[in-house]
Amino acid sequence: MSKSKGNVLAVISGPSGVGKGTVIKRMFEMCPALCESVSCTTRPPREGEQDGREYFFVTRARFEEMIQRGELLEYSSHFGNYYGTPRAFVEQKLKTCDVILEIEVDGALQVKAAHPSAVLIMILPPSMEELERRLKLRGTESDEKIAQRLARAGYELSKKDKYDYCVVNDDVDRAAERILNIIREEKEVLHDDK
Predict the structure, then answer these.
(1) Domain covering 9-192, topology
(2) pTM above threshold 0.90
């Protein structure tokens, strides 16, 4: 991957219910200069979604061509659809700003392999009990679905040692500020390495 002029690719993961989306939204409020990566998918757009904003919507044939050509930093398949991070889009954004990529653990490790200077940050819950409480508070899923999410959380948290940083989300503002500080520190390291 080409040099990113000292801009940071921050890959953020964490179990469902940990508050990733809320923390990332707060980061963008605190630092509007950040760029968010946009993934590709083969699933059809939902109502209100726009190509290039929520996702780049592509055909299955085009996605498989992107895989063959090495055009994706990572990809996976969920519920019969592909999802992946387009390499060219991330490289282009890194020329002008720090890029935030919110992605699950396996994809994050693929990104690190493809782009070793990527900074992996895992958002952790204060405790598994608190994570379960947050999932139940959503009121959107059955007990069975919550149990599945907690099992998945156990798997994801078992990979935290492969991450460069772990940030506990016990307070949204504090977690967002901590991640922004990590990006600033990593940016200084990139500048020092030149």
Answers:
(1) Rossmann fold (3.40.50)
(2) no
